[in-house]
Amino acid sequence: MSASLSLEGVRITYRGGREPHTAVDNFSLLLPAGRIGCLLGPSGCGKTTVLRAIAGFEPLRAGSILLGDRLLSSAAAHVPPEQRRVGMMFQEYALFPHLNAAQNVGFGLRRLAREERDAKVARMLALVGLQEAGARFPHELSGGQQQRVALARALAPEPALLLLDEPFSNLDSNTRERLTTEVREILKAAGQTAMLVTHNEAEAHAMADHIGVMHNGRLARWSEQEQAPH
Ligand code: ADP
Ligand code: MG
């Protein structure tokens, strides 16, 4: 089941340099269940930091993160990443090169019995339009196909929330445009709550129901946008 995401007064501070560096501050938003949100802003403004905190890889100095009514993070509490039901599709999260497409998609499903897992892998590959490609290895797939396999892999464990960090930025502009629309349709068909980050304005508008403009670690605006019919 997809859940709503709520961030309230979030502050994230990096230590380790000569002085602590507050990368994200006073950051609040509400993304309703089943909606696609997008954080838009230039490189270095803190987009990845926000996603890493939602995924559980950065602690909060202040504020809270909730998924549905479940507290994931605050200054005092921290649910470990693997217990958050948060899926990720990051640009740098390449597929496992030594596993074929079906094995990549099934990777997070190892707890399931064989038959159930195989059925789910087939369903997920069909969802991303790659039902014929299960036996192919990553190097036998185009960049766009690889990202669709990565999407199927991220969706397979049925996360309550999916995070996408610039997932299309390594692709040529034609593939990127096509895939943006396709991925939106897939997420909508699955009723998946998702949060995308990008520095590409066209991508944000093509993909998202809610767009937040980020500037220097702060959210300047969080607004709902009209979507073209999908
Ligand atoms: P974006 O994803 O929008 O490009 P980031 O979230 O990666 O931005 O970075 C936001 C700020 O935090 C930048 O100033 C960056 O240099 C800093 N930063 C990111 N990761 C770390 C880290 N591990 N340690 C210290 N500073 C970091
Ligand atoms: Mg980034």
Written overview of the protein:
By secondary structure, the chain is of the alpha/beta class. Helices cover 29% and strands 28% of the residues. It is built from six helices and ten strands; from the N terminus they run E-E-E-H-E-E-E-H-H-H-E-H-E-H-E-E. The strands form two sheets. Strands 6-7-8-3-9-10 form a six-stranded mixed beta sheet, with helices on both faces. Strands 2-1-4-5 form a four-stranded antiparallel beta sheet, with helices on one face. A hairpin with a 6-residue loop joins strand 1 and strand 2. The radius of gyration is 17 Å and the shape is globular. The protein starts with a strand and ends in a 6-residue tail after the last strand. The model has no long low-confidence stretch (mean pLDDT 93). The chain binds adenosine-5'-diphosphate (ADP) and magnesium ion. Magnesium ion binds next to helix 1.
The structure class reads alpha/beta
Average per-residue pLDDT, rounded, comes to 93
- Which stretches are low in confidence, meaning pLDDT under 50 for 5 or more residues running? none
Helix content: 25-40%
How are the strands of the largest sheet arranged? 6-7-8-3-9-10
What is the helix/strand order?
EEEHEEEHHHEHEHEE
Oligomeric status of the shown chains?
single chain
